[in-house]
Structure formats: structure tokens, C-alpha cells
From TrEMBL:
Pfam families the record matches: PdxJ (PF03740)
Complex formation: Homooctamer; tetramer of dimers.
Sequence similarity: Belongs to the PNP synthase family.
Protein name: Pyridoxine 5'-phosphate synthase
Keywords from the UniProt entry: Cytoplasm, Pyridoxine biosynthesis, Transferase
GO BP term (any one): pyridoxine biosynthetic process
GO cellular component, one term: cytosol
Enzyme class name: transferase
Reactions it catalyzes: 3-amino-2-oxopropyl phosphate + 1-deoxy-D-xylulose 5-phosphate = pyridoxine 5'-phosphate + phosphate + 2 H2O + H(+)
Source organism of the structure: Aquariibacter albus
Keyword Transferase assigned: yes
Binding residues annotated for 1-deoxy-D-xylulose 5-phosphate, in chain numbering: 17-18, 53, 58, 108
Keyword RNA-binding: no
Site (Transition state stabilizer): 159
Length: 268
């Protein structure tokens, strides 16, 4: 199906972290997150997003260098607010930076950045990264105090954490979905009123639980958030890569079967 372009549709940042997760599970070079990023750009991704974690559990320093050299779309470098990360970002000079919180034991980014409680530190980081030519975004919860603090410290953008909404969606908890959608929408509107560019991301998915495809009655979590008019960018990774498995698995099986059949024929 070909969709007519919607001029106000959110840009899509494709997060490639979990291609690296899969690669690192075996310690070899495959699958290469750079190859995934190249394919993503060719397929229409507007932005390539990646998170260089302090523990390097998925993306590694050499991936960052290779991405910077080879990717022509804007890079969105997600990082904790540490001196080490700020130094790496200054050397890399990605187009976009998203400052995120990190905890060693978390399985993923479980909450938003505490901006209101560390304004001097964030003000300094935003100024440093702006001086390096990076557009800075702060990854925060849809909390009015954090949104106002983001504007105060000079960040031009915020990305609202959609993880709680995404979890409610997986559980199909209608009351919680309605409450969290309204909270996100109010947060996006507050951000816009403060002059911020507003993004959203984390945990967003495409297929509805219990159905093979989203329907108008049970839209995907991605559709619900994308429909909010203040969302200028969506950043999606984990479920997008999971979705790729299901849209690509049948072809992968055919490719491996063909390889085996041809090898056996050639060996005869
Ligand atoms: C900040 C954010 O929400 C994600 O982009 C981030 O990359 C999550 O970390 P993991 O990819 O390690 O789950
Ligand atoms: N900032 C959110 C992001 O990049 C993607 O998060 P996820 O879809 O991997 O949960």
C-alpha cells in the first residue's frame, strides 16, 4: 500500500540499539548496526537514533565513529549527562543529541531525566552541546515541572517518555491508556506553549496484542501517539526491530532454504 505523504506527519527516528544487542549476543560482527542504519535511511527513516550507554551494552564507541562517517541522515545521539559522554559527543558532532537518565541495573530507560533538580548541570550541558553545533533534546516524563525546567535550561527540544503509555497499551488497560495519553498530550501542549519542539518515544509498537494488525478500533500505540498533532518526531527502536522479524522472517527462511538447495546441487 502506498500512502500519500502527510506534510505534518512526525519525522521517524529509527533507533538501532537492538541490532547491536543481537550482534553482541554472539560477540561477532553480525548483525551490524551500521548496515541496519544504512538500510533504514534507504527505506525512508528521517533520523538514525542510537544510545551509547555507559556500560556499552549495545552500541559501542566504534559504532558511533562508523555511523558518523557513513550515515547521511541526521544522527540523534542519546547519552547520559556525564563528562565522558559530553566529550564523546563534542568529538562526534552529531546533528542531534538527546540527554537521558541512566541507571546501571535498568533493562531500558525507565523514567525521564531529572531536569528540575539539576538545572545548573543541564544548563551547562545544553550550552556546551549547542556550542558544538548539536540540537539538544531532553528525554523527560510528561511532568509540567520537568517541561518548564527544560525550557529554563535552554533546551530547544524535549522528548516525552512514552514507556508508561506503551506498557498500558500492551496490557490493553483502557483507563490507564486514556489517562496517560491525556497526560502526554497536555505535556506536549505545554512544551509547545513554552516554545519547545516536542518529540515522543519509547516502547511504541505497531501490532495490537491479540490481533495480527492494528485496527481503527484497536490502534497501535504508535498510531495513538503519532496522531497527537504536537509530535514533531517519533523515536522508535525495540518494537520496530521486533516487527522487522515478523515482516522479514518468511523471506529469511526462503533465503536459507535456497542457499542450502543450491549448495547441494552445486556439490553434486
Ligand atoms: C532513551 C530511550 O528511551 C531509548 O532510546 C534508549 O535507547 C533506551 O535504552 P535501550 O535502547 O538500552 O533500551
Ligand atoms: N528515545 C526512544 C527511542 O529511541 C526508542 O525507544 P524504544 O522504541 O527502543 O523503546
Amino acid at each position: 500500500m502506498i500512502f500519500a505523504p502527510a506534510p505534518d506527519a512526525p519525522l521517524l527516528g529509527v533507533n538501532i540499539d537492538h541490532v547491536a544487542t543481537l550482534r553482541n549476543a554472539r560477540g561477532g560482527p553480525f548483525p551490524d548496526p551500521l548496515a541496519a542504519a544504512l538500510l533504514a535511511v534507504e527505506a525512508g527513516a528521517d533520523i538514525i537514533t542510537f544510545h551509547l550507554r555507559e556500560d556499552r551494552r549495545h552500541i559501542r564507541d566504534e559504532d558511533v565513529i562508523r555511523l558518523k562517517q557513513a550515515i547521511r541522515a541526521p544522527l540523534n545521539f542519546e547519552a547520559a549527562v556525564t563528562d565522558e559522554m559530553l566529550d564523546i559527543i563534542e568529538r562526534t558532532r552529531p546533528e542531534h543529541v538527546c540527554l537521558v537518565p541512566e541507571r546501571r541495573q535498568e533493562v531500558t530507560t525507565e523514567g525521564g531525566l531529572e531536569v528540575a533538580g539539576q538545572k545548573p548541570r543541564l544548563r551547562e550541558a545544553c550550552a556546551r552541546l549547542a556550542a558544538a553545533g548539536c540540537r539538544v533534546s531532553l528525554f523527560i516524563d510528561a511532568d509540567p515541572a520537568q517541561i518548564e525546567a527544560a525550557a529554563e535550561v535552554g533546551a530547544p527540544c524535549i522528548e516525552l517518555h512514552t514507556g508508561a503509555y506503551a506498557n498500558a497499551w500492551w496490557a490493553q488497560d483502557a483507563a490507564e491508556m486514556a489517562r496517560l495519553r491525556a497526560r502526554l498530550h497536555a505535556g506536549l501542549q505545554r512544551g509547545r506553549a513554552l516554545g519547545l519542539r516536542t518529540h515522543a518515544g519509547h516502547g511504541l509498537a505497531l501490532w495490537s496484542p491479540g490481533t495480527s494488525r492494528p485496527t481503527p478500533e484497536a490502534p497501535s500505540s504508535t498510531a495513538v501517539i503519532a496522531a497527537l498533532p504536537e509530535v514533531a518526531e517519533l523515536h522508535i527502536g525495540h518494537a520496530l526491530m521486533g516487527h522487522a522479524l515478523f515482516v522479514g522472517l518468511a523471506q529469511a527462511i526462503r533465503d536459507f532454504q535456497a542457499e542450502a538447495v543450491q549448495a547441494r546441487a552445486a556439490a553434486r
